Amino acid sequence: MFLCNIFFITTMLLYFEVVFISMVREQLRYYVSNLEEGINEFFWNFLIINKEREQKQISDKIRFQLAPVIEENEIDEGLIRGSGGLHYCIRSMVSPKYEIDFSSVYKGKIENDRRLQPKKQSNYEKLIDLVSSGKI
Predict the structure, then answer these.
(1) 37/42 Cα distance (integer angstroms)
(2) CB 17 within 8 A of CB 25
(3) For the whole model, what pTM was predicted?
């Protein structure tokens, strides 16, 4: 009886872990804001969840859309545990352009996400924890 209960609990935990992990999907999230009132420069933050090679292609397409990019920084990147090889990358760019034709950048899920508002790098830790644990 005891072994049966342990088997059942173990099976259920594995099931929930697989269901939870399978919720992580390829996606592109972004946030854009004006750097300063009256200045025609916009601050863009992007969260790209995808395979590493695809991330580079998506970043290149974003860079092309925002050209000329005045400044670009990679805030953080890493592997999403248990996601089957998906990585995340949080990247910021400054550009005089306020709009992007996202249909030519990415065909998957695209979402404007206020959690990507400009912050001190240390304040991104909660977002990074959500991403790396598969909750986004």
Answers:
(1) 10
(2) no
(3) 0.78
Residue corresponding to tokens 């005045």? 70
Q: What is the pLDDT of residues 51-104, one digit of tens each?
A: 999 999 999 999 999 999 999 999 889 999 888 899 999 999 999 999 999 999
Q: Furthest-apart CA pair in the chain: how many Å?
A: 72
Residue 48 makes CB contacts below 8 A (sequence gap 6+) with 27, 28, 55, 58, 59, 88, 89, 91
For residue 94, count CB atoms less than 10 angstroms from its CB and return exposed for 0-12, middle for 13-18, buried for 19 or more.
middle
Which amino acid, residue 91?
R
| Burial zone of 61 (CB within 10 Å; 0-12 exposed, 13-18 middle, 19+ buried) | middle
- What letter does residue 120 receive in the DSSP assignment? -
Residue 102, both tokens:
């996202």
Instruction: Reply yes or no: is the peptide bond before residue 96 cis, omega within 30 of 0.
Output: no
Q: How far apart are the first and last CA of the chain?
A: 39
Nearby residues of 136 by Cβ (< 8 Å), 6 or more positions away: 24, 27, 29, 47, 49, 127, 130
